[in-house]
Design goal:
alpha/beta; 8 helices
């Protein structure tokens, strides 16, 4: 059974009398332990797809199964449970709470699970250690670089031991060197800790860290290739 199964998904927005197909009959599956890039230019449908995978938006039609569960049949409360237990989110803008320490930012998702305070902080410290920030637990976001803030966000995404990590343009606000450092942490999460990682990017150099590349254009999937095949097509285009 696939961790993610998307079948014939459409997302249609009405703009006056016109209809815009953000997703147009999209189907794909992702197995547990994969490291997948969703690529495409602005307006290609990649972010709409990511929002659907994260249960932040519903398709107009189609089916979406996460770990065998029919996501589109769930109530709002059940969707919240899915987001808190099955999915770890990493965003371009970090989304950290400004006046809260790195440790408390990481521990916060566990409050909603009712985990006792002592255990919350133990797990948060372990997550910060995984991303190399064990010495920064008392720092506020303003006291950390962009790369460090994104690593705090990664620690927050993994602290509940969610099997799926969704990263939306996670290097979009970072310089090249810092982007490389952050991507190495995603590689480590996939290869050492077995996390399934799905990453949205428009940058080929970032997609090249992934093992499979799904490319969108005009709401459709135009290619779905393992990294080796994708690199061949990329090299041929250049």
């Amino acid at each position: 059974m696939s961790l993610i199964e998307v079948k014939n998904v459409k997302k249609v927005y009405k703009m006056g009398e016109e209809q815009f197909h953000a997703l147009d009959d999209v189907s794909f599956s992702i197995e547990e332990g994969e490291f997948v890039a969703i690529m495409g230019a602005s307006g290609s449908g990649k972010s709409t797809c990511m929002n659907m995978l994260g249960t932040l938006d519903e398709p107009t039609s189609g089916e979406y199964y996460l770990d065998g569960v029919d996501v589109l049949a769930l109530s709002s409360d059940k969707l919240s449970d899915i987001r808190n237990n099955k999915i770890g989110f990493v965003f371009q803008g970090f989304n950290l709470i400004a006046r809260t320490s790195a440790l408390d930012n990481v521990a916060m998702p566990m409050i909603y699970k009712g985990i006792p305070e002592k255990e919350r902080y133990e797990k948060a410290r372990e997550a910060l250690k995984i991303v190399g920030l064990e010495t920064k637990e008392n720092n506020m976001p303003s006291q950390m670089s962009g790369g460090q803030q994104q690593r705090v966000a990664i620690a927050r995404a993994i602290v509940n031991d969610a099997p799926l990590i969704l990263a939306d343009e996670p290097t979009g606000n970072l310089d090249t060197k810092t982007s490389i450092d952050v991507m190495q942490f995603f590689v480590n999460l996939n290869e050492k800790y077995g996390k399934t990682v799905v990453l949205v990017t428009h940058e080929p150099d970032i997609a090249a860290y992934c093992k499979r590349i799904i490319k969108f254009k005009d709401g459709k999937i135009i290619s779905d290739l393992p990294k080796s095949e994708w690199l061949k097509t990329r090299n041929a285009e250049t």
